[in-house]
Design a protein that fits this description.
Bound molecules: ligand MGD, molybdenum atom
Strand content: 15-25%
Number of strands: 35
Structural class: alpha/beta
Number of domains: 3
Number of helices: 28
Radius of gyration: 27 Å
Length: 840
């Protein structure tokens, strides 16, 4: 969804500069709080009805009934409000004593001091200003990475960025952890992002596809959440797919995933060695080429550079023909199966649904490039129910887009300007006129270019200021970061090599975080603001991400917890403390949460009003709010019949792709000219830094760390959902039966998992559902290090390598790690992940 610049035309609101944003928010939040009853609201995991008794949450369940199986993530709202919460603003003791020499090495072990909210605001404003004076805006890192909570208004990272931009600028980040490699390589190859784009609609797939390949994806687990709020459309279509008996379903995954288990005998499970998919694809391509079974006409009409790829395929350039037999040695799938798979794909209408894990690996650009090359040889791209898709497993891609309104969101604003007295005077696009911020009449000054580092290079950047790196054909110089502000993310859960991140954090003088819970990232900060959960504030959201099916009111359910504040308010108060008049621009002249929600809603309402003869249920805002019910839009005949890349296939001249040639680039001149050794002119097999086939193995098992079926990353960890999966009180690790036997490990044992980067404890799940030599431990664990850095809770990221995918994308490589596993001896240490830290 594109964020709109909303400030334009909104300047006619009443002048509220003299009213404190704080008071406004407090008054409005109380509007219509239900003491006993049911409130409908939403989270990433869906639209839900929350039950309240005597002002306390007593239960929650789904509001929508599209699927047979209810989404279990919806039932734990009470725990999200009451467990592991931060109650008061806190400052780390050494920081409070001397912010200029704050002993960063004590982060995570120092004592905490409770301070008043006003003092915390003053402290942050002062230290932020000091950093900008000392280091410029390049000294300030404001993090974008984080799944925060659902809701268009209480968008923590957007408010953080808006405050940081208006108060003078900051270092941001490029890309994301989800599709870091995919979103850089695909525009070169297919001319668009692909990973965040609508997929061929499921009704089309059901009608036309004979074969469905789920390649490195686990939709039954990953479709439980959406970036907006989930509308269960994806899971609903998978339930339908299971009933269609005329489809051949093939799942390619080293793990017998939730999806593979869901289909049971209805699917074929192919388990290559982790990170060897490119070799397997090359084996198929070689077979199709030499047997002349590939679609020559498609290659000639719709692609460029095949002639430069073939010599590599045949081994003319490197003396290694990429035969199925060659591939078999690498990927562990025999040559006969590789050929059979290729035959099946090419002789049936085949829809390949590609997940994102493969590209979250060393040289993660290659599997996407190679699967596009292979799909081009199969020749079904742009046909109904054929070709490749990179987002069927995510946020209900493939659920037809509904015709209706789309809610806008918060805009980030542009860099603020100040006068000699340090008062805010405006930005490049707006200025203060008579005590009011007016958009449109900007101060004539050129905006500083925004400066950003690849998102997953944060530890590297902190440790190596001034270092120059390659990135997608450009050079980036790491800034000298001294001040980190995080809102809406959990870096000490999501970043790779947590021991390295701990060292990197020490390079910054100041770390501030807005958090709801005492996560590891909160415990590793200097200043902590306690933040409300979505159940303690009012908001509004769309559902589905791709389907745009509902507009959902997110009504406040309970009173704010202790001294928890909304992110919007924290940054409003920081604006006030930072410079005179800054808050006017930040809050658009004093808008409160309802003003924003209402303005978003009204923009959406205008959109549907302008569609002639279009039936919709949308009423005026006050009625919508009082009803507390989602509005539903319906798909159209066109969106139900929609086929990805169909226009291009129909006429590649009139509807060219966004690549330089307008065609599918099997060879990319652009990438070739960059001259990188680790990503060259066409798809290639590169050995990952760590994998099972390496000559001198760094450790015994390949660690896969997929997304958790019972959480959203680290979110929901602090709920009773944990009882469903924790083993020996820790994160479960799957290990093959034969491997477990060889190691003397039994089901339920506490095990130590380690490599040169660190060590963790986990609970063994001994199972047939994983290949030999592979172990599976989900990401998103609340990191819980002991004095020696051993994570008592089982955070995979202690073990994961923090090197970039390649010079092209600099993406994280979560899935390329070897680890050792042994039965834990000794007394099991107490888990402290969910406990408050030690207070002064
Ligand atoms: N090893 C490994 N690591 C990975 C991955 C992997 O596959 N393997 N996956 C990566 C991917 S794809 C992703 S997207 C990232 C996810 O990483 P994150 O997005 O950082 O993960 P979350 O657990 O969703 O963190 C969100 C945090 O925001 C807090 N929060 C929620 N709502 C609010 C709010 O309104 N205001 C504020 N201030 N805070 C709020 C939550 O309490 C939580 O701590 O992890 C990445 N890390
Ligand atoms: N329930 C739930 N749903 C989520 C999330 C969550 O945290 N919880 N997170 C959301 C987010 S932010 C994202 S980015 C997406 C992530 O979506 P994905 O990245 O697609 O999900 P993963 O779970 O990391 O991996 C999917 C599958 O790939 C397999 N796999 C791993 N390595 C390889 C390999 O080398 N080859 C092959 N063939 N398969 C491999 C894994 O075993 C797993 O079954 O999910 C989203 N959905
Ligand atoms: Mo992600």
């Amino acid at each position: 969804m594109k964020r709109r610049n909303f400030l334009k035309g909104m300047a006619s609101l009443p002048l509220l500069s003299s009213v404190s944003a704080t008071n406004l928010l407090a008054d409005n939040a109380k509007k219509g709080l239900v003491k006993d009853g049911v409130v409908t609201t939403a989270a990433h995991w869906g639209i839900m009805d929350v039950e309240v008794k005597d002002g306390k949450i007593t239960g929650s369940k789904r509001h929508l009934n599209f699927t047979k199986e209810p989404n279990v993530l919806l039932n734990f709202t009470g725990d999200m409000v009451y467990n592991s919460r931060i109650k008061y603003p806190m400052v780390r003791k050494s920081y409070l004593e001397n912010p200029d020499s704050p002993k960063p090495e004590l982060r995570g072990v120092d004592e905490w001091v409770r301070v008043s909210y006003e003092d915390a605001i003053k402290l942050v404003a002062k230290e932020l200003k000091k950093t900008r004076e000392q280091k410029g805006s390049g000294g300030v890192f404001a993090a974008a990475q984080g799944w925060k909570s659902a809701g268009n208004m209480h968008n923590s990272s957007a408010w953080l960025h808006r405050f940081m931009e208006l108060s003078g600028g900051f270092i941001g980040s490029l890309g994301d952890y989800s599709t870091g490699a995919g979103q850089i390589i695909m525009p070169h190859v297919l001319g668009s992002l692909e990973v965040y784009e609508q997929q061929t609609s499921y009704p089309v797939v059901f009608e036309n596809s004979k074969v469905i390949v789920i390649w490195g994806a686990d939709p039954i687990a990953t479709l439980r959440v959406s970036y907006t709020t989930n509308d269960d459309q994806g899971l609903m279509y998978f339930e339908k797919l299971k009933e269609l008996k005329d489809k051949k379903i093939i799942i390619i995954d080293p793990v017998k995933s939730y999806t593979a288990q869901f289909f049971g005998d209805g699917a074929t499970w192919i388990a290559p060695r982790p990170n060897t998919d490119v070799a397997m694809m090359l084996g198929m391509a070689h077979y199709l080429y030499v047997s002349k079974k590939y679609d020559k006409e498609f290659i000639e009409t719709y692609t460029t550079g095949f002639d430069k790829f073939v010599p590599y395929l045949l081994g003319e350039t490197d003396k290694t023909p990429k035969t199925p037999e060659w591939a078999a040695k690498i990927c562990g799938i025999d040559a006969k199966t590789i050929k059979e798979l290729a035959d099946t794909f090419v002789s049936n209408r085949t829809q390949i649904m590609c997940g994102w894990a493969m590209q979250r690996a060393h040289h993660g650009e290659q599997p996407y490039w190679m699967i596009t090359t292979l799909a081009s040889m199969i020749g079904q791209i742009g046909l109904a129910g054929g070709g490749i898709g990179f987002s069927f497993h995510y946020a209900n891609g493939g659920a037809p887009t509904c015709k209706g309104a789309v809610l806008p969101g918060v805009s980030r604003g542009s860099t603020g300007r100040f006068n000699d007295k340090g008062e805010f005077i405006g930005t490049a696009t707006g200025k203060i006129v008579n005590g009011k911020y007016v958009e449109g009449e900007g101060i004539v000054a050129k905006d500083e270019p925004s400066y950003a580092i690849p998102v997953a290079r944060i530890a590297d950047a902190l440790l190596n200021p001034g270092k120059v790196i390659d990135h997608n054909g450009k050079k980036i110089t790491y800034p000298d970061i001294d001040f980190i502000y995080w809102a809406g993310g959990n870096p000490f859960s999501h970043h790779q090599d947590l021991n390295k991140l701990t060292r990197a954090w020490q390079k910054a003088r100041t770390v501030v975080i807005n958090e709801q819970y005492w996560t590891a990232s909160a415990k590793m900060a200097d200043i902590v603001f306690p933040i409300t959960t979505p159940y303690e504030r009012n908001d509004i959201t769309m559902s589905g991400d791709y389907s745009n099916m509902h507009i959902v009111p997110m009504k406040q359910v309970v009173e704010k917890f202790y001294e928890a504040k909304d992110d919007y308010q924290v940054f409003a108060d920081l604006s006030k403390a930072y410079a005179k008049d800054l808050v006017l621009a930040y809050s658009d002249n004093g808008k409160d949460e309802f003003d924003w929600i209402k303005s978003f809603y009204n923009t959406a309402l205008e959109q549907v009003k302008n569609i002639p003869d279009f039936y919709h249920e949308m009423k005026e805002f006050d009625e919508f709010w009082a009803e507390n019910k989602p509005y539903t839009f319906a798909p159209t005949m066109e969106s139900e019949a929609w086929v990805r890349h169909a226009e291009f296939r129909e006429d590649p001249i009139l509807n060219p792709l966004g690549t330089p040639s307008g065609l599918i680039e099997i060879f990319s001149e652009t990438i070739d000219k960059m001259g990188y050794d680790d990503c060259q002119g066409h798809a290639m097999w590169f050995e990952p830094a760590e994998w099972l086939g390496m000559k001198t193995k760094a450790a015994e098992f390949h660690l896969i760390n997929p997304h958790p079926e019972y959480r959203l990353h680290s979110q929901l960890s602090n709920t009773a959902l944990r009882d469903k999966y924790a083993v020996a009180g820790r994160e479960p690790i799957w290990i093959n039966e034969a491997d477990a036997k060889a190691k003397g490990i039994k089901n339920g044992d506490l095990v130590r998992v380690f490599n040169k980067r660190g060590e963790i404890l986990a609970g063994a799940v001994v199972t047939k559902n994983i290949s030999r030599g592979v172990v599976r431990l989900c990401e998103g664990v609340w990191y819980d290090p002991d004095a020696n850095g051993l994570c008592k809770n089982g955070a995979a990221n202690v073990l994961v390598n923090d090197i970039p995918s390649s010079k092209l994308a600099n993406a994280p490589i979560c899935h390329s790690n070897l680890v050792n596993v042994e039965k834990f001896k000794g007394t099991a240490p107490e888990l402290t992940a969910f406990k408050d830290p030690k207070f002064a």
